[in-house]
Design goal:
The chain has five helices and eight strands. The protein is of the alpha+beta class.
């Protein structure tokens, strides 16, 4: 993995970090790795240890899972500015719940869980700020997922 520094303005465009102060962003940048992936490369597979948060600096990533009798089913297509794998930062011992595969040549920002936790322990005020931003983002995603589930449930009633 390469260690290119990520410009704060680029990190600010990631939804997860929109409301985080420049000081906290600078600390996150310091622990961010920036690997590149070729189209089709597996970033991680379902069942792998959840040990990092990812955000897309360039390119596209497909989140998918395998369904018995069907094969691989795409769950989401993510683009520059999107993040994934957030639960791995806060859930101890978690494994990946889906595959992440580079859809195009991509550069990602990667924040390792171990370094993230060290950063949170070192500055509780900053930890609160960053984690509050995560909670807000994840709550919005959960709300959106609930809307989709409601739509699917209602559409099945009319079949």
């Amino acid at each position: 993995m390469s260690w290119n520094l990520v410009d704060l303005s680029r990190l600010r465009k990631i939804e997860l970090f929109e409301h985080v102060s420049d000081n906290a962003l600078a600390e996150l940048v310091a622990i961010t790795k920036t690997p590149r992936y070729k189209a089709g490369d597996a970033i991680f597979r379902k069942g792998d240890p959840g040990d990092a948060l990812y955000f897309i600096l360039e390119g596209e990533v497909r989140i998918s899972t395998d369904i018995d009798g069907v094969g691989e089913e795409a769950l989401a297509f993510l683009k520059s500015g999107d993040s994934f794998g957030e639960m791995a930062l806060v859930e101890s011992g978690a494994t990946r719940s889906a595959h992440a595969i580079a859809g195009t040549s991509s550069q990602l920002g990667v924040i390792p869980r171990s370094e993230f936790l060290e950063l949170m322990d070192a500055d509780p005020k900053m930890a609160t700020e960053i984690l509050w931003s995560f909670v807000t983002t994840l709550a919005a995603r959960l709300r959106e997922s609930n809307k989709k589930l409601e739509f699917f449930a209602l559409s099945n009633l009319h079949e």
